[in-house]
Amino acid sequence: MALDDRKSDFKFVGTRPDRPDGLDKVTGRAKFGADAHAPGMLHGAILRSPHAHARIVKIDASKAEAHQDVKAVITRADFSDKVPFKPGLEGEFWNVLENVMAGEKALYDGHAVAAVAATSALAARDALKLIEVEYEVLPHVTDVDKAMAPDAPVIREGAADYSVPEGMHPNVVRYHESGHGDVETGFAEADLVIEDSFVTEATHQGYIEPHACLASLGNDGKGELWCCTQGHWIVQKTCSALLGMETSNLRVTASEIGGGFGGKTTVFIEPVALALSRKANRPVKVVMNRSEVFRATGPTSSASMDVKIGMKKDGTITAAEGIFRLQGGAFPGAPGDMTAMCGFAPYNLTNVRQVGYDVMANRPKQAAYRAPGAPMGAFAVESVIDELCNKLGLDPIDVRLKNAAHEGTKASYGPRYERIGLVETLEAAKAHPHYAAPLKPGQGRGIACGFWFNHGGETSVSLALSEDGSAQLMVGTPDIGGSRASMALMAAEVLGIPYENIRVTVADTATLGYNDVSHGSRVTYASGLATIKAAHNAVEKLCERAAAKWGIPVDAVKWEDGCAVPSGPNAGDFDPMPLADITANMGSTGGPISGHFEATPEGAGVSFGTHIVDAEVDPETGKTAVTRYTVIQDAGKAIHPAYVEGQYQGGAVQGIGWALNEEYIYGEDGRLQNSIFLDYRIPVASDLPMIDTVIVEVPNPGHPFGVRGVGETGIVPPLAAIANAVSNAAGVRMRQLPMSPPRILAALRDNG
Amino acid sequence: MVEVNLWSGLRSLTGGRQVVEVEASDTGELLRELVRAYPALQGPIDAGVSVAVDGRIIAGSLNEPIHPDSEVYLMQRLRGG
Fold first, then answer.
1. CA angle, corner A675, sides to A57 and A209, nearest 5?
2. How far apart are CA A169 and CA A156, in angstroms?
3. Would the CB atoms of B78 and A265 count as touching at under 8 Å?
4. Which of A89-98, A126-135, A736-745 has the lowest average pLDDT?
5. CA A410 → CA A58, A181, A279, A720, B17, distances in Å?
6. Nearest 5°: phi and psi at A416?
7. Best of B38, B57, B64, B69 to disrupt the A interface by mutation (most A CBs within 10 Å)?
8. Nearest CA of chain A to the CA of B11: how many Å?
């Protein structure tokens, strides 16, 4: 049931005030990654491998170094030989170093092999041509199934961890298996069992702002870094490790961010800019172009999946099994385990088994992209459920309701669920006018559910009150989804002062305690929880000052609507004392009043959504149009509903791109064929219908206001929901994404 | 004693057992005791695990309380975007 009509006890939470960054963004005043300048600044450029897999025999940079405009040239030697490494630079730090600057081998088309700092951006790019690299080209593989085959070239021996069963190809680096019950028994109980295979291509987050940074690292070992990132503390930690610095000697400031979606949770150019700056002894700015973003940042994994589900005639699922193979580039890290754990998570299953593989191939190191790994698995699982419904003549929402997980259900990945809202999203979907609307000839409707875990993470927040009664809130999570607005609303709720009187700043690494990255849909949950607690901390101090002024015990004072008031008739008869009356002379009544909170909150609360999609397929051209789209998702509590709706709509739009057009296309030579937006087709406004949203609110018991993260779940159902709509419209099951016009035409042709 | 449910991929490291028992009153102690009883679990625990206690997923904190009757699952460390 949608709870939009429920009366709220909140005064500020749940309202839709103007966004605090709106004017800066529409006037161009907002400072993004590339907007920073420094006196004496140089410009960096990065030389990239044209080969998918090659041994680097020799790099001769002498001609570049001799050029008058060039002030520094670096290669891997500037990280590994000349820099004293901290002990313990291994594991993921080693992988990141190997990714930001190739060592012995170039592992993918676009892999960085050297970099230059010069007096202008043009001079830097020209100087790259003066660097001579001798390569010994090696066999390569870019396809996940081929990378697992016995004859596949080995990308890195010994990269597999403890989990990989004996006998697998060395490119298989991690293995996950989980589940419960006995799937064979379950399949034997089914009236119909469908087993099918599915493929998805890698896609890119497609953030509008390319990576950009300005680095300054002096001879005194002290560094400053301005960069576009989802988490500047992880940038600080990683860069200082890669450059052999003390962490606190590097101050990192996050710029305004033009989209991240998970792709800016690691570093690419930042350690390079710092190494160039250290060598040149001048500030160095590095800005990626779009082609570099596609070739050398972190797209999603591509996937190959087999799913088998058994169902009774009444719609009961008797068993479910999935094998999910994910390719994550030339490094360990593809989230095959997450795909496996999320795929069947919406359902209450007696017998379930899921297997995930993490496979290396000669592609860029995959990065997170909203609910990493989950959308592909949902595509495979929800497609098979849709096919079962079609074959058994069952309503797809009724079947999902019949099998839906609820509080107390044993999740496919193990534990029992706390209070969750899947059933409520399905009921809202069934009641929505969209579901009852008639379809025109040639149109099809698709339903799919999706699940994501959500995350808490290390969080530190400070709040400082001003003499005039306004407040400054310092958070450490870059604002990728409207968090400055939602933080201000939550602080306003506790303090009882207007939203407009609270300014929220994303503080730098020298100003606040460690904050985990803005990822895992954690910001409104964790930074929000910390904001609420920091505001309560300030309120306690405000009550102490009021108690002192009134000469009564502090426990006789409570906080109400922005004022200290006596807590009861016995506390004394005093007029309410507004916040601004207390802060006006706080310097002489005990000093500045601030609130703080630091913690790693562990109650993020999982999240579910249900999507309804109508699609129309042109049988002449194979072109698909999405004609109607409705997103229904549990937000726990929507702090700023307009931003929540934006997250839902954004997830649907990115899912439409992933389902219909977007894909990494590699040639036989292992080179990326479509590294610009003209050839990598993301949806634009004219491709899209109005995307309707329904906010379901089933409060998360782990958050004071009931918040669940909303940033990621919205991209989990779309691939499946669109594939189901397109399959139902075309009359043929679509098993491969993207469902581009040539693929749809081929499927129609194969279907006769 | 706390019953700890492992994911099935770990059975090869615990002599085929998917449910093991250890003495622990918080998440940190649980992980230490698991490694003490089953040294081969050091690898997956070092690689990153989360612990679900009565349905609540503890991503990484070592000081979350566990009661003897708690339902405890070891899970792979979650990652987000």
1. 110
2. 11
3. no
4. A89-98
5. 56, 11, 56, 24, 19
6. -85, 145
7. B57
8. 10
Residue A339 contacts residue A326 (beta carbons within 8 Å) = yes
Q: What is the pTM of this model?
A: 0.96
CA A218 to the chain's CA centroid: 34
Cα-based angle A372, A532, A571 (whole degrees, multiple of 5): 160
Distance CA A523, CA A265 (A): 14
pLDDT, chain A, mean? 95
CA distance, residue B24 to nearest chain A CA (Å): 18
Residue of A nearest to B10 (CA): A163
Using CB atoms within 10 Å of the CB of residue A311, give its burial: 0 to 12 exposed, 13 to 18 middle, 19+ buried. buried
Task: Pick A335's closest partner by Cβ from B5, B43, B79.
Answer: B79
Backbone angles phi, psi at A122, to 5 degrees: -65, -45
Question: In the A/B pair of chains, how many CB contacts fall below 8 A?
Answer: 103
Whether A252 contacts A232, CB under 8 Å: yes
β-sheet bridge partners, residue A212: A287
Please judge whether A600 and B52 are an interchain contact, meaning their C-beta atoms are less than 8 angstroms apart.
Answer: no
Q: Which residues of B touch A414 (CB under 8 A)?
A: 5, 7, 52, 73, 75
Mean pLDDT across A580-608: 96
pLDDT digits (tens, 9 = 90+) for A626-644: 999 999 999 999 999 999 9
ipTM score over 0.85, yes or no: yes
CA distance A174 to A161: 6
Check B81 against A265: CB less than 8 A apart. Answer: yes
Mapped onto helix, strand or coil, the DSSP state of residue A282 is coil
Contacts of A335 in chain B (CB under 8 A): 79
